# Entry
Amino acid sequence: MNNLHEHPTPEEVRLTDILMEVLEIPEIRRTDRYLDLGGNSVSLFLVVERIRNEMGVDIDPQLFFDPNRSSIAGLAKEIALAANRSQQG
# Structure
């Protein structure tokens, strides 16, 4: 997603909800990065578990620390790609 003014994807919406609940913060923008939101390895365990349980996707926890993919939009894209792979395979 190159255009930051696009409507959020369903994955972005759900990931944002999960992160707001786990990190106990009231607002997240799609350009925010996990570590900048106060995320850490302990909260990451909860986030990854919720993504698995609620979205049916296993996502590599290292993505949350990758500066090129750790924005909400970037992580949501990775979740969508993982979901597509699991449906195909």
In short: The first helix runs from residue 10 to 23. The chain has one domain: 10-88.
